[in-house]
Amino acid sequence: MRLGFYYSQSQDWHEPNGAGNTWDFGADEKKDYDQYLRGKAEPQVRELLTGYGTGRADLVRHAAHDDRRSAAPLHEDRARSAAGHAHRRPARRRGRLREHRRQRHPAQRQGEAWEVPATINHTWGYRKDDTDWKSPGPDRLQARRHRQQGRQLPAERRADGRRRHPAGEPGHPANRRPLAAGERRRGYGAGPTPFGEELGEPSARGAKDVRGDPLIYQQIQWRVTTKPGKLFITFFDEPRAPFALPAIRNTDQARLPPRRQGAGGR
Amino acid sequence: MKMENGRAVLNLERPIFDPMATVVVVEFDGDKVEQVR
Question: If we measure between CA atoms, which residue out of A85, A92, A98, A30 comes closest to residue A62?
Fold first, then answer.
């Protein structure tokens, strides 16, 4: 088994010239990013790529500061390692996905494939005391979206190597095999919602959130995915009243799926 | 499911099959949903 590393550079709250920590070290624009890059990131990457025999290093670069400036040395190090390579997040590398803001799913129907970097608790790095797991509904939503895009939900692990959450357990819907491109073309994968009203809506008053972005009221009670001739409606809350679908012309029957009823998605 | 004023209305049994996530399949004619706007 080969050894892999995830190296996330640029954002470094510990280093005075790393990005992100503006409360201790001031605005990012005034920092000496080169000093951070040459003094810390590059030596660490070099060590990862060359210091552990045949180890493989999967390097994930963050787009911060001058990305072109930071790319070259990483690729030089790539050349030094027989097995290493540097890339952006895998989905973005394929050039097929639009990346939305972290931890926040878009509340409007998207006309293109997309992804949201998100955690299943509240921490990007490892924190033993962060056991506030997101509830199963949103987890399954996230898993469904990943499957729609033919990808697996990223697994998170404890310090001892065990997976951190049932979402990462074998057999969990989030952990099913991603669909191959041919399977998606043939309609095995789920398509996006034809509606969009179930996702939520922006503030009618034009309010902003604490980050200055348009305030979105997201809804997570139900979601829809599609295949030719079928709508798959997943309820994350129990309907307490007759549930009216958005008006469509060409339907007259509904049923529970014959297999895996209530499994949470297709 | 029944149709009311052109809208498909689902009456699901309570308690719901899986409170975490219950999937209902609605079949429609053709390949694409024809929405009424």
Answer: A92
A163-189 pLDDT, tens digit each: 444 444 444 444 444 444 554 444 455
Mutant choice from B7, B14, B18, B24 vs A, greatest count of A C-beta within 10 A: B24
Partners of residue A225 in chain B, C-beta under 8 Å: none
Per residue in A218-235, pLDDT tens?
Answer: 888 888 888 888 888 888
Minimal Cβ distance to A254: which of B6, B26, B32: B26
AA identity, residue A136:
P
Predicted interface score ipTM higher than 0.95: no
Residues of B in contact with A233 (CB under 8 A): 10, 23-26
* Spatial contact of A133 and A119, defined as CB atoms under 8 Å apart: no
Measured CA angle at A54 (ends A51, A58), to 5 deg: 80
Across the interface, of A242, A250, A264, the residue whose CB is closest to B23 is A264
